[in-house]
């Protein structure tokens, strides 16, 4: 016979019993597991872009597409270069046709939908190029919003996507303030720059770094004080993109201008 | 072709990977979820707060909410690039994500509605199953009906006064528990958008509240609309049936054939429901305007591009279609004295349209400008599908989702009769 007293008693015992396995889950949290599995203290990958050195040739974009098997003609790319032109009458123009895969071969600004803007050389006050790639944020919103944990941050700071587990909801694409994410045209899952993870973990540089003839792109380990990239970041005046989002981006720029979006 | 390229037109400076990734199905998702929540709240007004005049509507909207419940996750599934992996959200939820708890919230809510339905219709199941049980020589159809209702009773055949009283109590408790869960279900849909800090239009703590208010508005409107249409259809059918019966048996004047003619939609029910509709409509509009004013007043970095979208590019769909046609006109229609059934029908349709446009302006409008704040993206809804993707994320896919509740409701009303004139089911 179930009396009210008995019911309450067994319900309490049940709740207490259930609480135990929940604490067990807490003990085996993925963060803890990751920390315990391998030592992560040695490496934190960061990137350094010297905008003074970039000429907008687009060799980095080309190399990236080939290295990471992003369909060459697809209008998406893991890295790209932007061109900014400020005219004497203070109008700002910017474009990145095909992500600058073929470089900036014309001086006309691409306004989209097949329209172009001609700007005379003498009207230009200031013009420069800005390479862009995933910022491998310290506080990555894309990782936060993934409903299945298919995108995650490795111990060395790089944010990766598990192509076998991504459900393709696009929430991470929406959450990224830098617009670096897209759907891979072949795999139909979220895709982004991962600093050429398959290369850097084997002692190589990322494809874009290797492809840049001017040294505008460099990759390094900020935990290594002797790394030339670390030295620049620690001693020179560097800036990051869109700091206001609180993502703590880890791609540092030399010579970043206020016009850059 | 890259996902999103088929329906996105880019203008001025946008990042290379930017497209309208969340298209029509993500407009449908909060729209359908809102209808679910709204319909349930309407039914709870009777069960919990005892608003007697809504008795007819309560049963109706509860069943309708259940039908809508099955449709609500469909747009999400249609939108996924890997729909077969949709279950991963249930299997490996990543709880920092606003979407991850969807499975839990959704199933909790589903369980509440299902159990409330069971208590409301338990007596009906028993009464439908028992006569068939005793009948010998059942036809296949009767066998089927018998099995269905037999299973639905869950083995409980007690319909004594005492047990029915307990049922009523259970319904009340479940309806009361359902309100916060229904509101949470939809507030949660709002949070999915409101918490995206990268999107200047979405990011506001008001988003969940705005979504809840407009959800209730849309749920009430849809229930009113379906109620009116269903009642009027029933009146038509019964009238023609009676006429046919009279023609066949002109001499027969037995009471069975003279039975009172069926009424159409009850003006009283319409009037009181529309009052609740108005209440929530005013709340929804106030919140949305508050958000708009606040954005203009604080004018943070993103305001320049937002203003150019809200007052420029999307002016027609926001101010003419959403606020004008979808909010102001029905407000006037419902406020004018002497509300007729026909005017209510038009009003509810416009309200539904207004809420749909609100969802559209949030989801599509939020992607109408680039993350650069210096470029725009235009959405072109694929009308004629030319492949799988333009089908499921085009007009055809949206219509499939939008129309699905009605056949579902029809099937469900065979099991849960919503038009019971005898007042058997409380």
Number of strands of chain B: 2
Question: What is the end-to-end distance of chain A?
Answer: 71 Å
Structural class of the helix and strand makeup of chain B? mainly alpha
Largest sheet strand order of chain B: 1-2
As laid out across the biggest beta sheet of chain A, the strand order is: 11-1-13-12
Listing every helix as H and every strand as E from the N terminus to the C terminus, the arrangement of chain B reads EHHHHHHHHHHHHHEHHH
Largest β sheet strand count, sense and barrel closure of chain A: 4 strands, mixed
Oligomer: heterodimer
Please, what is the average pLDDT of chain A? 92
Largest sheet of chain B: 2 strands, antiparallel
Q: What proportion of the residues of chain B form beta strands (DSSP E)? A: under 5%
Greatest interface: A-B, 50 and 50 residues
H/E element order of chain A: HHEHEEEEEHEEHEEHHEHEE
Give the amount of beta strand of chain A, in percent: 15-25%
SSE-based structural type of chain A: alpha+beta
pLDDT averaged residue by residue of chain B: 90
Q: Helical element count of chain B?
A: 16
Stretches of chain A where pLDDT is under 50 for at least 5 consecutive residues are none
Instruction: Describe the global form of chain A.
Output: elongated
What radius of gyration of chain B results from the CA coordinates?
24 Å
């Amino acid at each position: 016979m179930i009396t009210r007293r008995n019911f309450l008693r067994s319900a309490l015992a049940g709740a207490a019993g259930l609480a135990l396995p929940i604490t067990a889950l807490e003990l085996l949290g993925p963060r803890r597991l990751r920390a315990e599995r391998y030592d992560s203290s040695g490496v934190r990958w960061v990137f350094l872009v010297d905008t003074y050195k970039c000429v907008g040739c687009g060799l980095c974009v080309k190399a990236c597409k080939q290295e990471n098997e992003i369909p060459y003609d697809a209008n998406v790319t893991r890295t790209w270069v932007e061109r900014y032109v400020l005219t004497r009458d203070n109008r700002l123009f910017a474009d990145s046709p095909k992500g600058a895969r073929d470089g900036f071969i014309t001086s006309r600004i691409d306004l989209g939908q097949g329209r172009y803007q001609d700007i005379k050389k003498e009207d230009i006050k200031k013009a420069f190029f800005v390479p862009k790639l995933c910022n491998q944020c310290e506080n990555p919103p894309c990782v936060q919003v993934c409903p299945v944990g298919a995108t995650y941050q490795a111990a060395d700071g790089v944010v990766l996507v598990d192509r076998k587990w991504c459900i393709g909801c696009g929430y991470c694409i929406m959450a990224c303030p830098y617009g670096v994410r897209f759907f891979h045209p072949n795999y139909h899952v979220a895709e982004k720059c991962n600093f050429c993870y398959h290369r850097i973990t084997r002692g190589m540089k990322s494809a874009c770094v290797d492809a840049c003839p001017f040294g505008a792109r460099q990759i390094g380990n900020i935990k290594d004080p002797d790394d030339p990239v670390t030295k620049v970041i620690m001693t020179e005046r560097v800036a990051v993109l869109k700091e206001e989002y609180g993502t703590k981006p880890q791609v540092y720029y030399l010579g970043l201008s206020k016009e850059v979006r | 072709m890259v996902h999103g390229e088929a329906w996105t037109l880019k203008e001025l400076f946008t990042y290379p990977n930017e497209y309208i990734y969340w298209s029509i199905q993500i407009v449908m998702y909060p729209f359908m979820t809102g209808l679910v929540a709204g319909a349930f709240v309407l039914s709870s007004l009777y069960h919990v707060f005892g608003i007697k005049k809504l008795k007819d509507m309560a049963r109706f909207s509860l069943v309708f909410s259940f039908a809508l419940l099955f449709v609500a996750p469909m747009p999400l599934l249609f939108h996924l690039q890997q729909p077969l992996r949709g279950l991963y959200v249930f299997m490996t939820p990543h709880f920092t994500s606003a979407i991850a708890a969807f499975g839990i919230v959704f199933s909790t809510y589903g369980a509440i509605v299902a159990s409330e339905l069971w208590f409301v219709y338990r007596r009906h199941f028993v009464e439908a199953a028992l006569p068939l049980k005793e009948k010998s020589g059942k036809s296949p159809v009767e066998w089927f009906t018998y099995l269905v209702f037999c299973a639905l009773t869950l083995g409980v055949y007690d319909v004594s006064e005492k047990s029915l009283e307990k049922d009523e109590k259970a319904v009340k408790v479940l309806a009361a528990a359902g309100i916060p869960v229904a509101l949470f279900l939809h507030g949660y849909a709002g949070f999915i958008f409101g918490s995206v800090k990268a999107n200047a239009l979405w990011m506001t703590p008001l988003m969940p509240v705005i979504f809840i208010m407009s959800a209730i508005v849309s749920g009430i409107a849809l229930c009113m609309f379906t109620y009116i249409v269903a009642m009027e259809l029933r009146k038509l059918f019964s009238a023609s049936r009676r006429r046919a019966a009279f023609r066949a048996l002109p001499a027969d004047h037995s009471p069975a054939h003279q039975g009172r003619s069926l009424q159409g939609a009850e003006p009283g029910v319409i009037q009181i429901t529309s009052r609740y509709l108005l209440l929530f409509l005013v709340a929804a509009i106030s919140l949305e305007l508050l958000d708009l004013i606040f954005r203009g007043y604080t004018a943070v970095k993103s305001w320049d591009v937002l203003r150019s979208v809200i007052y420029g590019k999307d002016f027609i769909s926001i101010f003419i279609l959403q606020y004008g046609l979808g909010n102001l006109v029905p407000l006037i229609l419902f406020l004018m004295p002497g509300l007729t059934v026909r005017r209510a029908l038009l009003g509810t349709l416009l309200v539904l349209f207004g809420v749909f446009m609100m969802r559209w302006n949030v989801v599509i409008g939020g992607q109408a400008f680039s993350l650069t704040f210096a470029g725009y993206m235009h959405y072109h809804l694929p009308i004629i599908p030319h492949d799988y993707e333009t089908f499921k994320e085009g007009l055809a896919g949206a219509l499939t989702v939008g129309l699905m509740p009605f056949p579902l409701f029809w099937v469900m009303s065979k099991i849960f009769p919503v038009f019971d004139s005898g007042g058997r089911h409380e």
